[in-house]
Description:
Chain A has 728 residues and is an alpha+beta fold. Chain B has helices at residues 2-6, 68-71, 144-149; strands at residues 15-21, 24-29, 33-38, 52-58, 61-67, 84-90, 93-99, 101-107, 113-114, 128-134, 137-142.
Amino acid sequence: MTIDMSQFFQVFFDETEELLAExxxxxxxxxxxxxxxxxxxxxFRAAHSIKGGAATFGITDLTEVTHVLETLLDRxxxxxxxxxxxxxxxxxxAKDILKMQLDGYRLHTDVNLEAVDRIRKTLDMLAxxxxxxxxxxxxxxxxxxxATPARSDRCFRIELPVVPPxxxxxxxxxxxxxxxxxxxxxxxxxxxxxxxxxEGQEDxxxxxxxxxxxxxxxxxxxxxxxxxxxxxxxxxxxxTEQRQxxxxxxxxxxxxxxxxxxxxxxxxQxxxxxAPFVPLTIPVPHPDASADEHDGDGxxxxxxxxxxxxxxxxxxxRRESDKPVASAESSSIRVGIEKVDQLINLVGELVITQAxxxxxxxxxDPIEHERLLNSVNQLTRNTxxxxxxxxxxxxxxxxxxxxxxxxxxxxxxxxLGKKVDFVTQGAATELDKGLIERIVDPLTHxxxxxxxxxxxxxxxxxxxxxxxxxxxxxxxxHQGGNIVIEVTDDGGGLHRDKILAKARQQGMTVAxxxxxxxxxxxxxAPGFSTAETVTxxxxxxxxxxxxxxxxxxxxxxVDIRSSKGYGTTISISLPLTLxxxxxxxxxxxEEIYILPLGYVVESLQPExxxxxxxxxQGKVLKxxxxxxxxxxxxxxxxxxxxxxxxxxxxxVILESDGKKAALFIDDLxxxxxxxxxxLESNYRKVVGISGATILGDGGVSxxxxxxxxxxxxxxxxxxxxxxxxxxx
Amino acid sequence: xxxxxxxxxxxxxxxxxxxxxxxxEYGIDILKVQEIRGYEAxxxxxxxxxxxxxxxxxxxxxxxxxxxxxxxxxxxxxYDQFTVVIILNIGGRxxxxxxxxxxxxxxxxxxxxxxxxxxGTAFNSDYLIGLGTLDxxxxxxxxxxxxxxxxxxxxIEKIAA
Lengths: 728, 161
């Protein structure tokens, strides 16, 4: 049973985490003055789903917090209480608490019980602040009578319009939260419920409106069938408490008070697990009573000595009946990442095979084999489409990363007493999942840095003639085969002199006339921090070097632009995906290499007169008035070439990070999409090579690391320096 | 034989794949061997040591090929249809090793494995398990795990580097 459950727990944890993230996102987007009812509903639904899930798994302390949260949200949603910034703050804190509790269960981290208690009290208080002037819910057709929260039980007859049986089940389960429910069928095949509850009619309408249009509902109040009201209500309460306390371990009913209704209920619940609908374990008790009740529940749950045979046999039935409620609206499925990767690998193989076929058919006579060639063309197109579709599975929008920042910026700015406007651009830009997960930490660091060091205090900004609130923007865009992610602030900018002084203090030798770009790069060195004081936000000097290292291992580049008084932009350029690239195959001697097409500007055959030597060491090529370093590939890779004179072979003009160079090769072979294979999985990193691929003929070809090549092109004249440099 | 089979449960397997390098006969733990293939054209890696012949495509994965004859100056590195590549799987990494020939799989009991002398083979004795004797044959038993992971081979990047 433990193993069985743990698997479901994982799903619950994942779902809850998503719901919490969703909730936070909505909360942050909420306009306090005029909240969008749709958003409020969505937040409420999220809280509600978490509560339902937690109750199913018997995680009572999670249910308790969500319950008070839900109560308050419900009031706001119905317009009984106005939304205030305090509410939003409380909700955000509650979200954090829930996350902490969730982690407590999942990762066995510590849970701060005091904080849990505090947030419950806060929410409770907020919920009751507004309770003094409850406005009748407008949506209920006959709300006037029901507005007062009645303590005593009332019996409603709810007639549903024609709806699918699944919805009826779902509704029955939801309404079961309110009290006791039984159901039947009308002559015209519509379902009806009889609900005994101490909640008002508007609650029923509210719940039903999740699934159907309230206008189609017919709710009539009928006299409570039997038993004396007060007695019954107490019975029910005790029963309610029991049910809450043990979560899905159903208490033994037989010892509890007698009375017809009680028995009926037992029939419906205790043994009724095999009936088509099952009420969820946690009903909604009245807010007044919730706090006291919950204390008791907490104690009860600590005694998990109830795993009797009944409970075990019931669990599966219950879970099944809960499922439709939880997953009714989801349109996505969860698939393990390894399955996706396997798919991608298989498609990669297919692409190679397809390329092989294409290569073979190229030699055929186009007239004689017209139909075969047409089919091959078709195959080529289909393969490409398939490949794109499969690759897109792994692609995720940057929003996945960006969405976690608004909250962080808000909290951090508040903590530091700064005002920050946070904007994101290009959240829809897609990036490989593997990369997106690794970019989170570096970006977090950069954003924190920008707020802490970049953006000045409001008074400083005012004195400098800027607006009080700083602007921090996070943007992502595609640029060729790369994605460029930029963190821009309009703060004070980097202090050139401070950085230079600090560098000297650290024992680095730096020239006074170092170009700005190189000065900025200094802050990426290990142990470098110019912050005057170490705060808990940043300034310990660990970080920027880690950022740089992380980005570099992802095959990316960090670039810093800054101007004093106007702000700083840190731009990260990453390859879109590590799996596939458009390549140009080139030939030097007998070797075939792949150049990533993204770097290729043009290729040309140089003329003798355009090639100049510089002090007998290196050669430059004049292309349209521009002098480019000539990099002879045969020299770098130690290959016996066909040509040693550039004017006999070809040069490919490459561009990376604004640097251009001319690569001297023997010949161009062709252009194709290649599947990048990691060289390091079985071998080691090779300088100047970013990976390998498999050609149409089954042979291996190496992919040239153009960025590294160009970065070191300055020292290229001396090969040894090039390799030493690159090996760092 | 029965005895040998029983002791198979001890930490190192007692079955060895015997191969030759030049005139010497070597043995490696059979459990490290993934497959044996013929030699096929490799793609050269620029600026790699001479004994690293390059990489090949082994059913979609890129596998480096090391020529032991060059590495240990044993025999003449010739490549023909008889040249054999032993594909090893060491700690999840796949690599190929070119040898002159593969003879057979032999089972050795612990008594048949004698400690290696301090010198006398092309291999550093750190990488040796011992010398195996089987009738008149003597096999140099190589700890292929240790050898292939060593910095000397340069096949695996050290984390610190």
